[in-house]
Amino acid sequence: MGIGLGIVLVLVGAILAFAVDVDVPYVSDDALGFILIVVGIIAIALAFAVNHQRANTSHQTRVEERHIDDGR
Fold it and tell me: What pTM was computed for the model?
């Protein structure tokens, strides 16, 4: 989910920064676009870091042996 969200943020940011000219009061569409691009890149990097950490985990199986002493 993190990689997909990052890609969507980068795409929306690129569209705002380079393709459209929206008149939003007090906000520059170019600045908002570049902010979304940076946030998207950070989201992609964090998603890769978390996935890399998940791939490096190891699981150990522990088996206990019990011997029954019947008193002989």
Answer: 0.71
